[in-house]
Amino acid sequence: MTPAKISCVWNQPEVAAKYRTAVSLHSHTNFSKESLHFIPAFADKWPVLQRALDRQCKKSCRPVDFSTAYWRPPVSAKCAFDLESKQIEHVLDLMSLVSLTDHDSMGAPESLRLLPGEIQIPLAVEWSVPFEDAVFHLGVHNLPPNLAPTFMEDFAEYTRSPCTSRLVEIMAALHEIPDVLIVFNHPLWDQLGPGQLPFQLVLERFLQQHIEFLHAFELNAMRNWSENKRVVALAEFWQKPVISGGDRHGCEPSGALNLTRATNFSQFVQEIREEQLSHVLFMSQYAEPRSLRFWQTVIDVLRDYPEYPLGSQRWDERVFHIDCYTGCDSPLSALWKAPPPFLGRIFSVIRMAEKKSVRHALSYTFGGKTDLTLTSEIACDANA
């Protein structure tokens, strides 16, 4: 297997000139459902927030179950497609290929295919796969239109009622389609947090049973280089290429792309699957402290978007819970005339991070790797 190439755009701005196309994989739109199950644990660490939440829950006639509550990213499918395309075309001066992968939904690519102009975008999804005590995320790209609805039903059925033999059947059927690409997204992220050792054992069993159906391991632009470096080692052990994944949830374009000489997505899939050729390019935003990038995403999520359609302009219109009386998804905005004042005060503090002076101070405080240090680490690890 040819080792994957890994480059940094801030250190090798000319590297893209050798290629025709850049590919954006794994980014999210307002079709994605992002769980809020972490809120109670987070509130436990902040007593003031916990007391405020308790007071609000007592006031509300519709209690919020955070285990089933979720939020949607602010960016529409068209905005997300344009955001990714423009970064590739304007910054790298290359042709763009974009695959949007929302959690367990193909709504974004399906909606884009209905727009005038015939946008070229593959049918893709990030499938949440329960396996023992873990949940793994698989990026499934370039599903055939005639088979995509059936596969989506199969994914949903398995996620509701996991069955080991059924998972093998579904993944084998996907693998049998030459133009489909199956990427193991952020493979070392322990989403449910059962503990490092148990997670590693579950991960190993998952790979032993399904590695023949996986085509690449993701280097995730929202995970730190230490974790991505371990993904490189994992991919080398299992003799699979690494591939880029932006995992964008806010308004920042993907921090990692793939460079290719392919001119369409099927050709790119063959390059990864058959030739196992991959060139991952980290964009300049990856060199910024990850904590600041995280807070910027939070700010993007909490911002008002008056230009959006009614029902999606405010953050509380994009956060949902399951109404305990009706069993239907209901926006938080239905619980009040305006968000509680304490939330406004918290969000005002968070939004201060957008000011240049505050951002500079936070960058200095949280440190992170400098461009030069990060470049050196990536280059050394990639060539080791």
Global Rg: 21 Å
Number of helices, counting only DSSP H or I runs of 4 residues or more: 13
Helix content, binned percent: 25-40%
Strand order of the largest sheet: 1-12-11-2-5
Rounded mean pLDDT score: 86
Which class of secondary structure composition applies to the elements? alpha/beta
- Structural shape: globular
From the 3D structure, determine the CATH topology of the largest domain: TIM Barrel
- CATH homology-level superfamily of the largest domain: Metal-dependent hydrolases
End-to-end distance, in Å? 15 Å
What number of structural domains do the residues give?
Answer: 2
CATH architectural name of the largest domain:
Alpha-Beta Barrel
How many E-type strands?
14
Q: What percent of residues are in strands?
A: 15-25%
* Low-pLDDT runs: none
Helices and strands, in order, run as: EEEHHEHEHEEHHEHEHEEHEHEEHHH
For the record, what CATH class of the largest domain applies?
Alpha Beta
- Specify the biggest β-sheet: 5 strands, mixed
Primary descriptors:
five-stranded mixed sheet, single chain, 2 domains, 16% strand, TIM Barrel
